[in-house]
Amino acid sequence: MSTKLLASALLITSLWVLGSNSLIAEQQAASKVVPDGDKEKSLAAFQSILKVLKSPRCMNCHPSGDVPRQGDDQHLHRMGVSRGKTDQGGLVQKCETCHHHENNLYANVPGAPHWGLAPRSMGWQGLSDLELGKALVDKNKNGGRSPQDLVKHMGQDSLVLWAWNPGPGRTPPPVPLPEFRAALNEWLTNGAHIPQ
Question: Which InterPro entries match (predicted)?
Fold first, then answer.
């Protein structure tokens, strides 16, 4: 290999590595909690987040007990279903028995990949705004997620995203998905402040 060709290859590789590292650092910085961030921005963003998390689309699958909720009125799930040991329904009646990978428009049964309840530790029903905010950043109550993982989960997970495409007769969260994602980043990057 000629010296000129080797130098060119080395330069291209170096630029690629620098660019990749820059992109990775940018993505990580975008979702890190900054303790001294702008408190007012953080609190305003948290209010938008709460509107989504307290909507039926989220609360129905984040019960504090063993029975999921359903519908915009958040009534107890019909058919006598319960959480089960794996948060996927009981021994005989698993969530996936009725809830498939997409909404069933003929039977009006909602569906998304890995349909099931959030773990009991992530039960949000009955929590105050303060308790819910604390739970979001507590790894013991958020599925062991770092701030970066939380942003990814809440902004990319197919089951979470289903909330904005819930099918007929179900109201999506009151905050559009792009605004929710922006609010989540804004909240975390400005200190994850919670109203006291």
Answer: Multihaem_cyt_sf
